[in-house]
Amino acid sequence: MAVPKRKTSKHRKNIRKGQIKATLSQVQSCPNCGANQKAHCVCASCGTYKGRQVLTVEV
Ligand SMILES: [Zn+2]
Predict the structure, then answer these.
(1) What's the predicted TM-score (pTM) here?
(2) CA 14 to centroid of ligand 1, rounded, Å
(3) Number of domains in the chain
(4) Calpha distance 23→34 (Å, rounded)
(5) 23 Cα: distance to centroid of ligand 1 (angstroms)
């Protein structure tokens, strides 16, 4: 089995991961507040997930 010769550095990893961008299908509107949110994630503006309050958001 092929094994990597060197550990991938944080810099190299971040360069690679920086090319991955959220596509439009991964963005949906929150059913509670209507703000754009990433799919399968807690809404950052109101703190709800699947209709229940998960985080307390300070204004
Ligand atoms: Zn929301």
Answers:
(1) 0.51
(2) 29
(3) 1
(4) 18
(5) 19
